[in-house]
Design goal:
Pfam families: Aminotran_1_2. This protein has 361 residues and is an alpha/beta fold. The chain has two domains: 103 residues, Aspartate Aminotransferase, domain 1; 209 residues, Type I PLP-dependent aspartate aminotransferase-like (Major domain) (Aspartate Aminotransferase, domain 2, 3-Layer(aba) Sandwich), CATH 3.40.640. 39% of the residues lie in helices and 17% in strands. It is built from 13 helices and 14 strands. Strands 4-10-9-8-7-5-6 form a seven-stranded mixed β-sheet, sandwiched between helices. Strands 1-2-3-12 form a four-stranded mixed β-sheet. Strand 2 and strand 3 form a beta hairpin. The model has no long low-confidence stretch (mean pLDDT 95).
Length: 361
Amino acid sequence: MNLEQTLTDLKEKGLYRQLINIESISGKWLTIEGQRYINFTSNDYLGLGQLDFDPQDYARFLNQYGHHLSSSRLISGNSSVYHSLESRISQWLGFEACILLNSGYDANLAVFNSLKDQNILVFSDQKNHASLIDGIKLSSIEKVIFKHLDYDELEEHLALYQCVDMPKVIVSDSIFSTDGSIANLQRLIELKKRYDAWLIIDDSHGLGLHTLEHYTEIDIVTSSLSKAWGAHGGAILCSHTVKELITNKGRSLIYTSGLPTYQLYFIQHRFEYIQHADTRRKKLFGLSDYFNRQLQIYFPNQSISMSPIKNIVFESLHDAERIYRRLYNQKLFVSYLRYPTVQNPTLRISLSYFHDKDDID
């Protein structure tokens, strides 16, 4: 192995990454090396991650349930808080069952690991999140990749394999994290029905934003809880049978400790707010619309999305790096995405409830 050479190659290609120390956060402001930056990188779209909470209520919760059970959920780590939360979340979103995991990444690994012995054939969007890709790959599931949001090509693939005696599963993000593009759920449901397939949707960047009108006809929904939900963890929404299967076969559930009980408090706390966050949602989508109108003036060839994720795509790393540095020097902190996260260098701008129109201007 030549680890140093690998790092040198990354630096020469402009693909080397480093961790940035964040000293504090307050609303839209991040503090880095004593300097304040407007934060356009956060996934806390509704601002729920910075909600105040009642210390006395928190203390009562910990006194009743403990801080951390320090065990797998299948041994002694399955706090009764899990049962209450999973029941309420599944009822709110219209599913038979819900299962909470340590992250959205773990949720996707658990789903596909549980399906690996079912001899399924997966049809996956080209730009699906890495956790979906890894879940499929690590479970050695046969897959067909279709071009991003190209549902005509997806149908061609489904038709080609229609006579193949394998269960078909269509897999897609709802909102794609690198460019904010939104899946056409209605078309996916039509194809699912026409070709007798299952439909799995990762709604990590949409859960709580109501970008999808409903989850009817979706077999499994996975999600992170660290974005609009403003907490930490992951969730799978499914049938009772799928939950039972994941409980018995999902390695990322079985072979890890459950969430610390104090994390369950914050999932529960945010749940009370996200159900009634219409004012925050309205402001966020108003900002999204305003950003799109401004973007079309200055970058008419860039794609737009009603999601809170915006992007500007560049042809060269040099141009992307130059603009990123210019924004950073002006105390505007955006996400700088490079290969292999994206094919072309991209600046991603994430809007949140904390922003206003002046920040966009």
